[in-house]
Amino acid sequence: MKAYIETTLNRALDTLGVPPDAREGVVVEHSRGTGHGDFATNAALVLARSEKRNPRELAAQIVRALPASDDIEKAGVAGPGFVNFFLSPGAWQSELGRILDAGDEYGRQKSDANLRILVEFVSANPTGPLHVGHGRGAAYGDSLARILEAAGCGVHTEYYVNDAGRQADILAVSVWVALLELAGERPRLPEAAYPGEYIKQTAGKLREAFGETVVHPWKDIAAALPSDAPEGDKEAHVNALIEEAKTRLGKDYESLRRDALAMQVEGIQATLKRFNVHFDRWFSESSLVADGAIEHALTRLSDRGHTYEEEGALWLETSALGDAKDRVLRRGDGTTTYFASDVAYHLDKLERGHDIALDVWGADHHGYVARVRAAVEALTGRGEAFEAQLIQFVTLTSGRMGKRSGNFVTLDSLLDEAGTDATRFFYLARSHDQHLEFDVKLAQQRSNDNPVYYLQYAHARIASLWRQLKEKGLDWNRSSARRQLSRLGTNHELTLIKHIARFPETISAAAADRAPHQLAHYLGEVAQAFHANYNSETILVEDDAVRSARLALASATQGVIASGLALLGISAPERM
C-alpha cells in the first residue's frame, strides 16, 4: 500500500508541475497513531522553498490535486504541512486478497538487477568450539543472507577456514602435549597454547590413530625449549615447541595438524547445523596457496603500482587509499602474511562475479576494515564492493552457564540451555551494532514474557483453528473466502491487515539496512496484533461468510509469520 500512496502522490505533484528532480527528500511513511491516518508525507515541507509557497498552503494544494480514488477515504493537512492519508476499509480488504493470492511468495521480491552478494560470516579459527560471541555472528549472517535473497539479491554464503596459518600449528602442539599427558608424561602447556577440555577430547580420539609414534620423553623436549619466556614475549615458548614438534614428529606432525584441524572443523559444522546455519561453501585458506591465488593477487597489486619493497619486505601502500598506514604482504624471510591471504581471498570473491563481498566480523576487527577496503580498491578500483558488518559483544545474564571450555562459554552450551529458536531470536532481536545482554532465564520461559514464545504461539494458535475447523466437520475454501473479505471491518481486523501488509517493505528495509532485527521487531508487532484480534473477535462463528473471511485473515497472518520466522531461521510450530 505504501507504493500505491507514493504513486498517487507523484501523480498529484505532476499535476502541480513539480519536476521529478526537485522531489529529492520527499518520503511517504507510516503514520504514527491512528489519528494521523495510515500514511503521511513530508512533500509540502520539502518542496515549499523551491515552489516558493507556504508549506501548509502547498499541502492543501497537494490534497486537492490527488486523483480520485475509492481506496483513499480522505486526505488532510496536519501540523506544519504534513499530508495524512486515510485508506478505506475496502483498500485494506483488497490488499488482503492480494496477500492470499501470493501465498508463500508474499513478501519475496524479484530484482532485474539481481545483485550478487557473497556473505562470509563466522569464519572462526578452527582451533576450538564456537563460543557465544560466534553464535551472534552466525545468527546474524545466516538471517541476513536469507533476507537479502528474499529481497531479490543473488546470495552466496561462505565460511573461510583459516587452516594455513600459525594458529593451526598452535592447535597441533596443544593436542600433542595432551597426547603426551595421556601417555603418562608430565608436559608443561605453553601459556600461548590452547587450554580446555576439548583439547583433551581431541587427543583422546587421535590417540589410537597415532599410538606411540608421537610420544617422546618430555624431559628431552623441555631441554630443547627456552626457559620461561621474558615479560611481554609469551610466544617464544610455543614457537620453540612448534619447531621441536616438527623436528621430532616429521611427517606425523603434518598428519597430526591435519587431523586435529579436521576434528575442530567437524565440531564447528555440527554446532552450526544444530543452530540451523548453512553455508554454500567452506573455503579453505590453504587452497589459496595451492591454487596460486596469493601470488596472483600480489602480482596484480604490483602491476597496478600499489606495492613497494623496504628492508626486504613487500608492502601494500594502503595509506594512500584510506588506511592508517601501509601493510606488509610478504616478510623479509619470504613468507606471506595473514593480510596477504585476506587480500587474495577478497580478490577471488570478486573475480567469481560477485558484486559485493560482505563480511561479518566481530567488533574487535574494526581496525581491519580500512585496510581490506584499501586492498580491494588497489586490486579492482572498486573499494565500495567490500562491505563489513561488525557484531558487538555478548554477555550472559541470569546466572552462570553450566559448561565452559577453556575461558569461554560454548555456543553448544547455550543451545543446551535455551534451545536453537530462542537463541537465534534473542541474538537477532537487538541491532548487531549494539552490545547484547542475553537473558538465559527469559529465553527458557514458556510464557508470553518470552518474545519468541509469544511469536511462535501466534502461529500455533492459528494452526489450532484449522484443527478445530476439522473437528467441527467444516471446511474452508480460499477462493470463496476472497469474496467475503468485505465482512472484515472491525478495528482489530483492519489493524491486523495493516500489519501483515507491511511484510514486503519490512523485508526490503531489513535487507537495505543489513538489519535482521527490524524483521524480528515487525513479527512481534504482527503477533501482538493477531493475539489482540483473536481475543476480541471469535473466528469460528456460525455465520459461514464471516467465518470464512476471518479464517482468510488468519491464513494470511499465519503465512506471514511462518515466512518471517523462516527468514530468521526459526521454526513455526503448529502445537505448543
Task: Summarize this entry quickly.
It contains 23 helices and 14 strands. It has about 575 residues and is an alpha/beta fold.
Characteristics:
576 residues, alpha/beta, Gyrase A, domain 2, Rossmann fold, five-stranded parallel beta sheet, four-stranded antiparallel beta sheet
Q: How are the strands of the biggest sheet laid out side by side?
A: 7-6-5-11-12
Can you give the mean pLDDT? 94
Main beta sheet: strand number and arrangement? 5 strands, parallel
The CATH homologous superfamily of the largest domain: HUPs
User: Structural class of the helix and strand makeup?
Assistant: alpha/beta
General description of the model:
With 576 residues, the protein is an alpha/beta fold. The chain folds into five domains: 2-87, Arginyl tRNA synthetase N-terminal domain (Gyrase A, domain 2, 2-Layer Sandwich); 116-160 and 277-391, Rossmann fold (3-Layer(aba) Sandwich); 166-270, no CATH class; 394-444, no CATH class; 448-567, Isoleucyl-tRNA Synthetase, Domain 1. Helices cover 52% and strands 12% of the residues. The chain contains 23 helices and 14 strands. It has helices spanning 2-15, 43-51, 55-65, 89-102, 132-150, 166-182, 197-210, 218-223, 235-249, 251-274, 285-290, 293-303, 338-351, 369-380, 411-418, 420-428, 440-444, 451-471, 478-482, 491-500, 503-512, 516-536, 544-567, and strands at residues 28-30, 39-41, 72-78, 82-87, 116-120, 154-161, 281-284, 307-310, 313-316, 327-330, 356-362, 386-391, 394-397, 436-439. A five-stranded parallel beta sheet has the order 7-6-5-11-12, sandwiched between helices. The chain has a four-stranded antiparallel beta sheet with strand order 1-2-4-3. Helix 15 (411-418) crosses helix 16 (420-428). The radius of gyration is 30 Å and the shape is globular.
